[in-house]
Structure formats: structure tokens, C-alpha cells
């Protein structure tokens, strides 16, 4: 079967941000064959970022979450199968088996199964009002519980935890963040940024328990408290666990595809089987800028890899690699991050955290490798360009906020 | 409903009735108008929903706020009437608004 020819069949497993986007890019790039999009959730592909932010606060409705309107799929001849789960891949027969026993044949398969919330294997983890936040159904549960006078315990001080804490405060609820490390965002951000976010949240009523181990969740039917390793019990009406995500790569592993904490792919999003692609949170992918493999969990990454797979399948040249980036909204803060802080030799802070407008640049051999920008779009946008071009910059200029970013980049 | 006219870079026009309260970006995405990528879904974080507002409409759509203005300052092919379409809310007063898309958002 020739690529992109009428009659070629693409099957996409996982109807999330990456899978939904791949279907749309295939059609946009002129793919005329059959597309089957299989998703275990009951709703068409939607965006997750608002689930912990605008949507949770009631500032965006369910409609605004959708990637494409419902009518898109029939209009563009995409066979969208919802509430359907893929359970196995037969690489020899080129078929995917579904939970109901049916099979779907493919010429190209795209795995876009995402990641799931990591669970804590401790007593009480299955009590009522124990929450996680990965999909729309989770978000409904969180929203139903939050409100004035409610007390939410959040285990994990990562982006999801901090975003939910900010949204909880906006809804009049109390929020306490319990973090095993000595600072919030320990895995994903630098120390000055952690300190800034902790202070900003504290000033708005979020409380913190750092260096704190969680032993158990207490309660009869519903969770009523979180027991810490020092013996204290923090009372709560609900507890949200946000301690990272685990890639849904089991089906790929069972099919013998190369996996290493995520499905291993190349820059065309191809797996170790040339007929099978993998995209989004489930992949471990090359990062040419940093000369290593990494698993990214972000919308821009899902979109970039969806384009890579769609280009490969339609015979288009692979798109130029992009600088990884991410954003987060908390209270009135806009955090924008570009690049990844690998092997950093020097950190430069531009602007003043006390003004809630500053950026932290990470450099290696005089070249910016990552920037974390708080309410500072010029630093983010120009920093992203400089990371991509690997152009060395003057540290003195970078450090001096009266020198414009255009001049820094000149 | 408010009529918004989206003009692709190649001149193709799309006349779309958009629900009041949505953004100009959402009007395009919901109706599959090509040329507006909107990678961040309206968070004013990506600058891939860039449009040029028709001169006659600049007054009515208003000025970008500080955040939007500084995102635009560093976007590609920016012109004096450039806006991020996710930051323009559709109102009755925008009946007939015409926006033009750049050659590419990336
Ligand atoms: C609350 C929250 C906030 C976020 N905020 C941001 C943000 O601000 N900025 C940012 O860049 N990123 C953010 N992200 C990350 C971003 O949403 C993800 O990186 C992106 O959704 C990844 O897309 P994906 O398609 O790989 O996975 P998903 O969007 O998770 O989609 C995977 C889909 O596959 C389905 N599936 C899995 N296995 C099967 C199977 N066997 N059969 C059928 N279907 C299956 C799942 O049910 C799911 O619907 C956030 C994520 C969450 C959860
Ligand atoms: S959609 Fe990203 S800035 Fe408008």
C-alpha cells in the first residue's frame, strides 16, 4: 500500500490531544485514506490544560475544551470510536484488538495513549473523595467538591498541584500542599522559581508542608485527613494526589516495541516498527538540541509529534525540530518555560521576583539552554529563539533589564 | 451571533457567524477556518493565533493589553494592526469584523 494513497488505513489509538491533532494534520496534509480514531473516554478529543485552570474556576465551559467541534469528525471522514479501548496489537497481521473483541486493520498505526496519574500505594488511597486530575471525568469530581469552607489536601507540589491550589483559593476553598522535597516544583524548576511560587501562593492563603512524607489517608468511607510521617494528621474534605504521570506504554511493550519508560521513537515519531508511530506523553523522544532522549508532557510536544507522524505518513518532509516549551497559569501569573535545564553551568535572573515579573535563564557555555519566564513574554519569546539558534549571549546584557531583549539577541 | 470575516493569506474568505462571548480565535477553530493554529488554546502563551485586524475595525477591537502586546512584539511578521485573536472577544459591536491571517503561524 503506498503512503497516503486512497485505501491506506491509519488507526490512531488514544483520542487525546496528540491523537486528535494527528487525525486533523493528516487531513490537512491531504491524506485521503481511512482514519480510525479510538478513544477510551466517552468524549471527543479535548484540551487538558484548562482542567486545572480556567475550566476548574468556571471561566471556560466544556465546549471551549474541545479540540474540534463534534461535526468535524464526520465532515472529515474520521471514524471516531469513543468509549472504545484498544487492548492488543498484532504486528504480523497489522491489526489492533479492541476490548469488545473486535479488530481494526491498519497500514499505519499511531499510538497516542498518553500517561496516567501516578498512584500512591499507601493505606486509604481508595477512600471516597480521593482525587487525581488527568481527564475530564477527574476534573468534574474535583470541581464538585471544591467550594467555600472546603479543605483540600494536595499531595505533590508540581504544576498540577500548584494550579489546583490556586483554583481552589479562587473558589473559596482552603488548600494545603504536601511535598516530599524541600521545595515545590523540585523536579521541574530552579530554586529561585520554587521560592517565588511558594511565597506567592502563601500570600494568597495556600499552606505548605515541605519535607513531608505521607503515610496514609484516614477516614471511614471518605477521606478525612492525611497522616504525615511525623505523626500529625492534616484534616481535609478531599485529597488530590498529583505526584507525576506514568506513560501508558504497556500495550506497546507487550507487542515487542522498544520502550524505555515510554515508547522509544525517532524524529519522525516512528517506533522500532516502521509501520507504527507513537506521539505525545507516551513517548521517549530524541531532543536534538540537547543530544539525548527524554519524555515530555506538554501540548506543544503533542502537536509537534502529531505533525511529525502526519508528515511521515503523507510523504512530506519532517518538520524542523522545535524548542520544547510549556506554560502554566496560577492566580494572575503567567509562567512560560522554553528549553530544558540540562547540564546548566550558570543561572541569570533578569528582573525582580518581588515585582512578579522576571525570568530565570539557564546557560551552558554562554548559550541559553532554558528560560523560565514569569509574566515576561519578551524574555520567553526571545529566549526560545536564542535556545533554538544556540547563539551565545552577553551575560551582562542579559542580566540588565534596561537592555531590551532585542538588543540581547542582536 | 456576530458575523466575522476571516481572510486567509491567499485571499480565501470565510464568513462565519460566531456566538457572542467566544473569542475570534474560537470562532475560527470551531468552524475549521484554516490559518489560526491556537496551540495554547487561548492562554495568550503561544502567539499562533496571530491576525491582522482590518484598518476599519482597529478602533472597535481595541488595544492589546500589556501581556498580549509583549507577546506580539516578538511574534513573526507583526504589523501595526496585529492582534492575538484569542484575546478579542466577539460582541454585537463587531458585526462584520474582518481579520486577515499571516502566511504561517510558525
Ligand atoms: C490537568 C492538566 C493540566 C495540564 N496543563 C498543561 C499546560 O498548561 N501546558 C501544557 O503544555 N501541557 C499541559 N498538560 C499536559 C498536556 O495536556 C499533555 O501533554 C497532552 O494532553 C498530551 O497529549 P496525549 O495525547 O499524549 O495524551 P492525552 O491527552 O492524555 O490523551 C491520551 C488519550 O488516550 C486514551 N487512551 C489511553 N490508552 C488507551 C487505549 N488502550 N485505548 C483507547 N484509548 C486509550 C486516554 O483515555 C486519553 O484520552 C496538562 C495536563 C493535565 C492533565
Ligand atoms: S491561542 Fe495561544 S496566544 Fe492565542
UniProtKB/TrEMBL annotation, chain A:
GO cellular component, as recorded: cytoplasm
Record-annotated membrane-spanning stretches: none
PANTHER family linked: APOPTOSIS-INDUCING FACTOR 1 (PTHR43557), RIESKE DOMAIN-CONTAINING PROTEIN-RELATED (PTHR43557:SF2)
InterPro entries, alphabetized: FAD-oxidoreductase/Apoptosis, FAD/NAD-bd_sf, FAD/NAD-binding_dom, FAD/NAD-linked_Rdtase_dimer_sf, Reductase_C
UniProt domain FAD/NAD(P)-binding: residue ranges: 9-306
Cofactor entry: FAD
Source organism, top-level taxon: Bacteria
Residue intervals of the Reductase C-terminal domain: 325-408
Pfam families, sorted: Pyr_redox_2, Reductase_C
Keyword set, alphabetical order: FAD, Flavoprotein, Oxidoreductase
A molecular function GO annotation: oxidoreductase activity, acting on NAD(P)H
Stated name of the protein: Ferredoxin reductase
Signal peptide (residue range): none
TrEMBL record, chain B:
The keyword Iron is annotated on this UniProt entry: yes
Keywords of this entry: 2Fe-2S, Iron, Iron-sulfur, Metal-binding
Pfam families assigned to the protein according to its UniProt record, in alphabetical order: Fer2 (PF00111)
MF GO annotations: 2 iron, 2 sulfur cluster binding; electron transfer activity; metal ion binding
Entry-linked InterPro entries: 2Fe-2S_ferredoxin-like_sf, 2Fe-2S_ferredoxin-type, Adrenodoxin-like, Adrenodoxin_Fe-S_BS, Beta-grasp_dom_sf
2Fe-2S ferredoxin-type domain location: 2-105
Top-level taxonomic group: Bacteria
Cofactor(s) in the UniProt record: [2Fe-2S] cluster
GO biological process, alphabetically ordered: P450-containing electron transport chain
Family indicated by similarity: Belongs to the adrenodoxin/putidaredoxin family.
Protein name: 2Fe-2S ferredoxin
Amino acid at each position: 500500500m503506498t503512503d497516503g494513497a486512497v485505501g491506506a488505513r491509519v488507526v490512531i489509538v488514544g483520542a487525546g490531544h496528540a491523537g486528535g491533532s494527528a487525525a486533523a494534520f493528516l487531513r490537512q496534509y491531504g491524506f485521503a485514506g481511512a482514519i480510525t480514531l479510538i478513544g477510551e473516554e466517552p468524549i471527543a478529543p479535548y484540551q487538558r490544560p484548562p482542567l486545572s485552570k480556567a475550566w476548574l474556576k468556571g471561566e471556560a465551559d466544556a465546549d471551549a475544551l474541545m479540540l474540534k467541534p463534534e461535526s468535524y469528525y464526520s465532515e472529515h471522514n474520521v471514524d471516531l470510536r469513543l468509549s472504545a479501548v484498544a487492548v492488543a496489537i498484532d504486528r504480523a497481521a497489522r491489526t489492533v484488538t479492541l476490548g469488545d473483541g473486535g479488530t481494526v486493520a491498519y497500514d499505519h498505526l499511531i499510538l497516542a495513549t498518553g500517561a496516567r496519574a501516578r498512584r500512591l500505594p499507601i493505606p486509604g488511597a481508595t477512600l471516597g473523595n480521593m482525587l487525581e486530575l488527568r481527564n475530564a471525568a477527574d476534573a468534574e469530581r474535583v470541581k464538585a467538591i471544591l467550594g467555600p469552607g472546603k479543605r483540600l489536601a494536595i499531595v505533590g507540589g508540581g504544576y498540577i498541584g500548584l494550579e489546583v491550589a490556586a483554583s481552589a483559593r479562587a473558589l473559596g476553598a482552603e488548600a494545603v500542599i504536601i511535598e516530599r522535597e524541600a521545595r515545590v516544583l523540585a523536579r521541574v524548576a530552579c530554586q529561585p522559581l520554587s521560592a517565588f511560587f511558594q511565597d506567592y501562593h502563601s500570600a494568597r492563603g495556600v499552606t505548605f508542608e515541605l519535607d513531608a512524607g505521607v503515610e496514609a489517608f484516614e477516614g471511614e468511607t471518605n477521606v478525612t485527613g492525611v497522616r504525615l510521617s511525623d505523626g500529625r494528621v492534616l484534616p481535609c474534605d478531599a485529597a488530590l494526589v498529583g505526584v507525576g504521570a506514568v506513560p501508558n506504554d504497556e500495550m506497546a511493550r507487550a507487542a515487542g516495541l522498544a520502550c524505555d519508560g515510554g515508547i522509544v521513537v525517532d524524529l519522525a515519531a516512528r517506533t522500532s516498527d516502521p509501520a507504527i508511530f507513537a506521539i505525545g506523553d507516551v513517548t521517549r523522544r530524541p531532543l536534538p538540541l540537547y543530544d539525548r532522549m527524554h519524555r515530555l508532557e506538554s501540548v506543544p510536544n503533542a502537536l509537534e509529534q502529531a505533525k511529525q507522524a502526519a508528515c511521515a505518513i503523507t510523504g512530506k518532509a519532517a518538520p524542523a525540530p522545535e524548542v520544547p516549551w510549556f506554560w502554566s497559569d496560577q492566580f494572575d501569573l503567567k509562567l512560560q518555560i522554553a528549553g530544558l535545564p540540562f547540564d546548566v553551568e550558570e543561572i541569570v535572573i533578569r528582573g525582580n521576583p518581588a515585582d512578579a515579573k522576571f525570568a530565570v535563564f539557564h546557560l551552558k557555555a554562554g548559550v541559553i539552554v532554558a528560560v523560565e519566564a514569569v509574566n515576561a513574554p519578551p524574555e520567553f519569546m526571545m529566549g526560545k529563539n536564542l535556545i533554538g539558534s544556540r547563539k551565545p549571549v552577553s551575560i551582562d546584557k542579559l542580566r540588565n533589564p534596561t537592555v531590551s531583549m532585542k538588543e540581547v539577541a542582536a | 451571533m456576530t458575523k466575522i470575516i476571516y481572510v486567509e493569506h491567499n485571499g480565501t474568505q470565510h464568513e462565519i457567524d460566531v456566538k457572542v462571548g467566544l473569542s475570534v480565535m474560537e470562532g475560527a477553530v470551531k468552524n475549521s477556518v484554516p490559518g489560526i493554529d491556537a496551540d495554547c488554546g487561548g492562554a495568550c502563551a503561544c502567539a499562533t493565533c496571530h491576525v491582522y485586524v482590518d484598518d476599519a475595525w482597529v478602533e472597535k477591537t481595541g488595544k492589546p493589553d500589556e501581556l498580549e502586546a509583549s507577546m506580539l512584539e516578538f511574534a513573526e511578521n507583526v504589523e501595526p494592526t496585529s492582534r492575538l485573536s484569542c484575546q478579542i472577544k466577539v460582541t454585537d459591536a463587531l458585526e462584520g469584523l474582518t481579520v486577515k491571517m499571516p502566511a504561517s503561524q510558525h
